[in-house]
Specification:
The protein is about 10% helix and about 55% strand. By secondary structure, it is mostly beta strands. The chain has one domain (about 1-179). The strands form 2 sheets. Strands 1, 2, 5, 6, 9, 10, 11 and 12 form an 8-stranded antiparallel β-sheet that branches. The two termini are about 30 Å apart.
Amino acid sequence: MYQINRIIIKILLIITVNCVYVYAGNKNEISIGIGVGNGIMENVKGMHTPVTNNLGTNVKGLVLDDNSLNTMYSLSIDYNRYLNDNLYLNSGIAFNRHYTVDTNITFDGGYNSEFPDIHFRGLALELGPNYRFNKISKFTPYIGLNASTFLGFQSDTNYGANGSGFYGVGGAETFVKCF
């Protein structure tokens, strides 16, 4: 029950925090949005140096002990193209800042490691259809299915420039692609 209440509170918070201005002078729409939120990060894989039970510098799978992915802010602009009746094609771009908390990981093979909090910044691109239901007062509910990708940078999850020091402090940022 606690989890359900927590999810409902998060949904209500996201709905009240998302401020969206929609220009809908005709059937095609442009919307500008500002938002914050919480989500999850799954199926994480990436290049890594050797770890216990998984030697070699290669692509390693891992599981996050806490897979929360929080959004500091998201600034977006979307274009909804009218197709027919209540069907629209949505395309959008957003600049996002995300972060993880308590980022302990378990690599394939079982090795567990503390990991610094990870920060992401970059562009999210979305494309897909949505269906608009009948208007209720000034509220128009809709449902959509978007394909999305994130292109950006991940904070320093490596050693510093000289190859020593604390892991995750002072290292170079890494380019990331998420689909």
